[in-house]
Amino acid sequence: MPPSLISRISRLRVAVVGDLVLDEYLIGRVSRLSREAPVPVLEQTRVEHVPGGAANPAVNIRSMGAQAVMAGLVGDDDAAGVLRGLLAARGVDLAGVLTDPQRPTTHKIRIVAEGAYVFAHHLARVDRLSRAPVTGEVAQRLRDGMHSLMSGVDAVLVSDYRLGAVTPAVVAAIRQEADARGAPLVVDTQGNLAAFRGFDVLRCNAAEAMSYLGRELAGDEAYARALRDIQEELAARAVIITRGAEGVSGLDEEGRVFHLPASNRSQVFDVTGAGDVFIAVVTLAHTVGADLKTAVTWGNRAAGVAVTRLGNVAVRPEDIGLAKE
Known about the structure:
CATH class: Alpha Beta
Strand order of the largest sheet: 5-4-1-8-9-10-11-12-13
Strand content: 25-35%
Number of strands: 13
CATH superfamily: Ribokinase
Number of domains: 1
Shape: globular
C-alpha cells in the first residue's frame, strides 16, 4: 500500500454498527481432575476482559489509526459497564451505543488453561446472551440514531453477529443514510447474507456461502462461480469469501476474481476474532482507495497476525508492515 494511502487512514472516520460482546477469559493452570466428576480443576491465576463481536473491528479501526464510532446495544448490567470502559479506553466513540434493559449485555466467558500445554487450551465457554431482535422504544432510538451517527463518516461497517441489533429497519436506515452521504457500505454477514442486498462489499466465510447457495464448494473454480452468483443475487458491488486455511477469494467491482493463500498456516494459536480484524483492515484500505485485491491482501495479513495471539487482538499498522511501506 503506497505511503499516501497509509497516511489517509488516520483521517478516516468509520461507523461500526452491530452486536457488541464482552469477552472474558478465566485463565489458570490445571492441577488435577475433580473427584466429583471427570473434569479438570482449573486454579485461576488471572482474568482478562476484551471487547468482542462488533466491538472488535471498532477497536481495530482505532488501533490502525482511524476514528471509530460505535452503534449497538448493551444491557443494564455490570458487563455493560466493563465493556463501555474498555471501548472508551481504546478511543472508540460510543455515541450510538444504547442501553436495552430488556436484554443482557452479550457476555462470553472462556475458561482457558495454560502452563502444562504448548499453547493455552480452551476448556469451555459460557455465553450469556439474547438473540431476540430489539423492539419498542430502544429499536426506534437505534434506527433513528443512524442519521446523527453517520454525520461525517467516510465508511460504514456492519458486523452482524445475529444477536438482535441489526434488524431490517436498522439496515434500511443505514442504507438510506450511507447513500445520502456517498459512504461505502461494508458488511461482515455472519451468515445472514440475504439481509444485506445492495452493499458495496459483502464478506462471508465458506460455510456461510455454501449454506446460502445450497451447494458444496471445492476448488478455486467453484468459489469463482459462487462469488459471481452471490454478487448477482444480492446486487453487491464486491464479494469476499474467506476460506480458512485455504485462504480467501474475492470478486471486485470490475468483475475480476482473485484467490489468495492464507498468510499464516503454521503458527495458528487462536482464531478468535480473526475475521473481525480482517474486515476492519479491508474496510480501511478499500475506503482510502486501494483496489479490493490489495485491501484483502492487507486484511489477510492482519488476520494472520491475529491468530498468533490469544483472544481478540488489536492489530497496529507496524504489525503488518504498513508503517514500513
